[in-house]
Design brief:
The complex is a heterodimer of chains A (353) and B (164). Chain A is mostly helical and 353 residues long. Helix content of chain A is 62%, strand content 1%. In chain A, strands 1-2 form a two-stranded antiparallel sheet. In chain A, α3 (66-84) packs parallel to α11 (245-270), α6 (126-157) packs antiparallel against α9 and α9 (206-220) runs antiparallel to α14 (323-352). The two termini of chain A are 32 Å apart. By secondary structure, chain B is an all-alpha fold. Chain B folds into 2 domains: 1-77, Four Helix Bundle (Hemerythrin (Met), subunit A), CATH 1.20.120.1200; 120-164. Chain B contains 6 helices and no strands. Chain B starts with a helix and ends in a 6-residue tail after the last helix. The chains are: A mainly alpha (353), B mainly alpha (164). At the A-B interface, α4, α5 and α6 of A face α2 and α3 of B.
Amino acid sequence: MHTFLFYLPFLLFFVLLAVYGERKIAAFIQSRFGPMDVGPKGIFQTLADLLKMIQKEDIVPKAADKPIFLLGPILVFTAIFAGFSMLPLNANLAGAAVESGVLLLMAVVSLDVLGILMAGWGSNNKFSLYGAVRAIAQIVSFEIPLGLSVLCVVMICQSMDLQEITRQQGLYTMDPIFLFGLKGMGIEVTQMGGLLSWNVVKSPLLLFSFLIFFIAGLAEANRAPFDLPESESELVGGYHTEYSGFRWGIFMLAEYGIMLLISFLGVILFFGGWNTPFINMGSFQWAQWTMGSYWEVFWLLSKTLILVFVQMWIRWTYPRLRVDQLMTLSWKYLTPFGLLLVFLCGLWKLMML
Amino acid sequence: MNEGWMYFFGLLIFLSGLTLIFIKNLIYAAFLLALCLLSIAGFYVIYNANFLAVIQILIYAGGILILLAFGIMLTNRSPEGKVIVGHHLLFFGSLLILGMALLIYALVGSSTILPQEVHQTTGQVKEIGVRFLTQYILAFELIAFLLLVVLVGASYSGKKSHHA
């Protein structure tokens, strides 16, 4: 019920580590050292950056639209953090008890577009406005494939409550689980739990849904290769060009926040949420041994952090897309494939019944 | 408790609605409209219509409002950097207000349309889905068809013409 008491400090702590981690991963991928001066292996670099950032003056440009300019970053972060309230933590700690949890999560998170618009328009700067227009066009169009891929999971699970969706993917499930969801094959794996009852294994089509979800999620988070809104080489800094000090920090917080949120959502919808990956085999009850409130939190967080790592890995591997390529990807490839997958998942669900 | 929230959201709707009409800066009006629509979602939550509240946020605040804001952003700015609107058509406007006020007065006088709480709090989504595919199937299909027509029309008119 009060999971946000965990998620808020966790998010702040995560951002501190993730910025450092991202720089180290980038350095590793590009064969250089990354931060290495502050503390052992440069581990306090982010802390030092943070201290510097807090001391900076909060500058408001003279020509800016002051109330909108000041409100923008706060709205962006609020919208994204509101999304965290729906996430469960383990079997006993569910998020907000909303029946249509996934839908509400997506609705609330899509409100961050308003904040970006405020920031871009309020700055009264042409680069900021271009950045904001790009960000909004991107977020609005990628919301459709994202919604379609989530819809596949909702159809398989017949629930929109994140806690209920997670519960169906492990030992605590109410319904029997068959291998690959095919009841006709008659191999029941309900008691084996672990990997075999995760959604991607229960109905393997969801693996393709996950690909769409992940690509659309990257675009939603404005991460590379979809970081056109803040592409440094052409737009200076996008919609947060004019911000300084702590307000700029809030934008960073929001960016890492939505990365984390998308990863959490991906893990909960496709990879079993807080369920263990180990399988009960004969007298080795691996799944039984690795379940319990602390284990469950551990599984949820570790799976999520792996996904975050993949996001960073992608960022430093692929070049940025052009605007028209971005729109082509969303409307000509992801959306039709998403529609097809919704149809196929419906058929798969019929075989599961 | 509930009553307090009702007055809170009601006040928000009232104030943001009024200001958005009288404010001259168009972009402020768009953001005030967002506040107004979100407060209406709050009203839905108070009366237990949870699914409706989510849809209100998703469609109105997240979808339609963004389109509106996009429209405003792509219009030309005046030299001072603000999009300004004036007051026009005051006569017909006030006539419309008078008509609406009379209509609302008559409706409130006849009771039975006051907001009612939804008593069923769980399984709303399922109920709505079942109703859509049984009781309201014609309306549902017609709306789906209309949206398809709009989509095809939009993509047709967005296509570059080969003759020009």
